[in-house]
# Entry
Amino acid sequence: MTRDAQQAPAVIDTSKPSVARVYDCFLGGKDNYEVDRQVFQQVDDVAPQMKQLARDHRNWLVRVTRFLAGEAGIDQFIDCGAGLPTAENTHQAAQRMNPEVRVVYVDNDPVVAAHGRALLEENDRTHLVMADLTKPDEVFDDPTVTRYVDLDRPIALIQCSTIHHVSDAEKPREIMQRYIERLPSGSYLALTHFYDPQDGSEASKLARFVEDIFANGPMGSGYFRSHGEIESFFGGLEMVEPGIARLNDWWPDGPLLSARTAEDEVLIGGVARKP
Ligand SMILES: C[S@@+](CC[C@H](N)C(=O)[O-])C[C@H]1O[C@@H](n2cnc3c(N)ncnc32)[C@H](O)[C@@H]1O
# Structure
């Protein structure tokens, strides 16, 4: 166990839904409470394919990790907003490509600290740090991060479904800009984000509906932003083909297994390289 983890607050507030636990519901996990399931149910009643989107999202992360640890030759990852290890995790996908890959996960949810640790810290090259991902300098200067990640060599920074939990008031663009400034040359950023096409389509209506439940309800965050806003989080880095895309269109493993749904449209992502 790392020093940071030992100091993590052990108190789990079961009176208020948490982002990590609600996401766990969508993935079919067991580390959630009634308050979390109520938020999940409100969305699931109207948009049952959101569960599939959550699974597609984890599959996207595995494909991206395969690219980063393989073709791109990255052997150190900082995965912000680790989440609960319900599905396959970054270190498992990365260490299949290269067993020497080091992964430091970052989260601030006590349930992730309590239940996720055993799976996330599976070997001596994977570590979990309790830190606030809206504070890039605190993440990069954390003693566990500096111990296991060489900040003078290329890193893969993963921001999967994290920045859409950062409100405009918290200045997500500035936060991402600071992350990018601190990344060594040759590093990669992989980022996914809730998307509102803002075109009156079914997908746009779905985005508004889910944002209302997530951000205006007791969970308190989950913002569906425009393509331009999401693009700005990449700070002008060189996009890896095909750029920012629907998750199933990024390095697909083959033709789609089922017809597209409005749910497929409301989460997009991409990978970019810092020259
Ligand atoms: C929707 S989950 C995504 C999990 C995983 N990245 C994935 O894509 O499957 C978002 C995660 O970010 C974490 N998180 C949200 N805000 C955070 C913050 N300010 N600092 C650290 N972690 C945060 C939550 O606890 C949760 O585990």
In short: The chain has one domain: 3-235+269-273. DSSP finds twelve helices and eight strands in the chain. The two ends are 35 Å apart (CA to CA). The domain at 3-235+269-273 is CATH 3.40.50.150 (Rossmann fold).
